[in-house]
Structure formats: C-alpha cells, structure tokens
Amino acid sequence: MKTTADPVRDYLAAVEREASALPAGRRQELLADLAEHIEVTRAEQPAVAVGDILAGLGDPRTIAATALAEAGIQGAVAPARRGKVHPMVPLLMLTVPYFLAMLLPDVPAAQFCSGLFRIVGAVLLCTSVHWAPVQKVVGVLLTAVLPSIAIIIWDQTTIAPAGDTPALVANLIALTVIAGTSAWLWRSRRA
Question: Which residues of 56-86 are buried (b: 16+ CB within 10 A; e: fewer)?
Fold first, then answer.
C-alpha cells in the first residue's frame, strides 16, 4: 500500500475504500464527520500526534463496517474485535520458553514445550492487531526462526566449538536478541 506524507488523507482514503458500498452521500457525510473530528481534536490538543488521533478513531475497516451495518447494507461485515490477546502474551511466549529451555537443556519435555510455546507465540504475534506486517515478520524472524536455526546448527554440526562456555555465550547472545526484539515490539505496538 502506498502512503503519502499526509496520514490523515491516507486514513480517510482507507475509510472511503472500505465504505465503498455505502451510498455516495452517506459515505461523504461519514468522511466529513471524521475529517471534522480530526481537525477539532488537532486544534484542541496540538501536543497530541496525528497518529495517536487516528489510532483513537479506530481501524478504518471497523468504522466502515459499523457505518455499513447502521445503513442496513447486506453483506456488511461486523466490526472486527480489537485484539483478543493482550500484546504481552505473544512476546512472553516467544521469550520465556527460550530462557527455560536454556536452563533445562537436558530435559526433553522442556525442549518440546519451549518449541511449542514459541510456535504458538509466533502465531499469536502474526495474528495480532497490535503490529504492522513488517514488524510481525521481523519479530518472528528474530525471536523464533533465527534462534531455532542457530540452535539446530549448533547442536547438529561441528561448526560450534565444544564446551559449556561457548554454548553459554551463544545462548546468552540468542536470549539477548530475543529479549531485545520483544522489547522493540512492545515499544512499537499499536494502541
């Protein structure tokens, strides 16, 4: 999706696109109401970022679906529910199991549960409404895919040096990358 330098225009265009089934007059009324609300909020609260104002209005699909349902248009999709899962859940499911597996390396059940929890965490991250697609891809790559590949390479090849100290260092580096990525995802989540 192309974006312009004007997030308000992009937002209103997205609402217009999603509400294309509305009659033209009702659609223009909806867009005018939204534009007026944005301008009033910007005037009353100049310190608030435009992105925060738009996030406060909600997802354009939800707004359009609500308007379509109010207009009684058939095939109107019910408004999407906000994230059912708190954004901390996928981040914890991607981070904590790795730490536990690192503490219990010789327990097969811990390794299995760690892998299972990380897969579920990756799925929850990918289906969450709290992050943009690019953030989801980066998050899954850095918290699940790359550490798993590194573990497989470390365990199954002779590339890695032998001994507990190199393994501990490698695990701490992987844990730092996973925790850092989770912290970045937490800070960059949508409200």
Answer: eeebbbbbbbbbbeeeeeeebeebeeebeee
